[in-house]
Amino acid sequence: MEAGNLFRFIPLNQPPQRRHLHSPSFSSFPRTVTVNASLSSQGESGYRGPKPRKEWIADWVSNNDDLVRSVPIYVGGFSLLAVLFNRTVSGIAPVADASSSQSRADLLTLGLAVTNILNGLVWLSIRPKSISVVNPNGVECQTIASDLPDFVISELLWAWNSLSDVTCCRSLVIVYDGKCILQIGFAAASFSNGSDPLAVDTNKLIEGSLYQGVLKSASQSYLANLSLYPGKSELPFLPSNTQAVILQPLGDEGIAIIGGDTIRGFTSSDQAWITLIGEKLDSTLTKVI
């Protein structure tokens, strides 16, 4: 059977955008919420659980980063001036005398003051690299295996909508039973035609160390900064500037590749949630593939 019969290509008119949890796309899923009337009538006073605690010191330091980094310079400079002033008004000879305990104490204090000043200069020169969201360099695509039942397609699209709405996910590829059944979001442009997405070479992917390592460990692999991993070459179908990738095994038969637009953009909660989504998808796909 030709590859063209296995997949159907559906172009997207709009780029996938992040939406809030109250996005209309979730309106088709009915939800029932039960509220205790006695608690609702009490308002906020009825809540007796733990309340979030504010870290005043941490918040102040975060909001005054430049000032905090400069504190050692001010302390060292003030200490240096204090030692010189004390030396001047105390009537001690300005020349240091090794036999004098005062001179030895002054030299030790001067060394500590200079150390503080140098430490402050280091703090000001070394700053954490700012992390920002990037726009993927690629084309939008939505390729789904044509031989899947409608309820499986709906679940795959639900997984994509959920991930793209509440995480930094911008690309999703699912390979199961040796076939690419879903490629959605942003993908690298094809070499032959820049407006078409680059198809997933499942044979090459399955033979790669990333795929084999994830299936062997049967656990999620998080590449928080994809540019630092040599295995990036095994994922040519993702946009070239993909920042982070999660490789989630789907049982023993497949893998979900989730590309993000932010370095270390997937939180620990996101990772745990993606693991549950992977288990749900594996349970569904096992029934039909």
Automatic annotation (TrEMBL):
<dbReference type="GO" id="GO:0009507">
    <property type="term" value="C:chloroplast"/>
</dbReference>
<dbReference type="InterPro" id="IPR044705">
    <property type="entry name" value="CCB4"/>
</dbReference>
<dbReference type="GO" id="GO:0010190">
    <property type="term" value="P:cytochrome b6f complex assembly"/>
</dbReference>
<protein>
    <recommendedName>
        <fullName>Protein COFACTOR ASSEMBLY OF COMPLEX C SUBUNIT B CCB4, chloroplastic</fullName>
    </recommendedName>
</protein>
<dbReference type="Pfam" id="PF11152">
    <property type="entry name" value="CCB2_CCB4"/>
</dbReference>
<dbReference type="InterPro" id="IPR021325">
    <property type="entry name" value="CCB2/CCB4"/>
</dbReference>
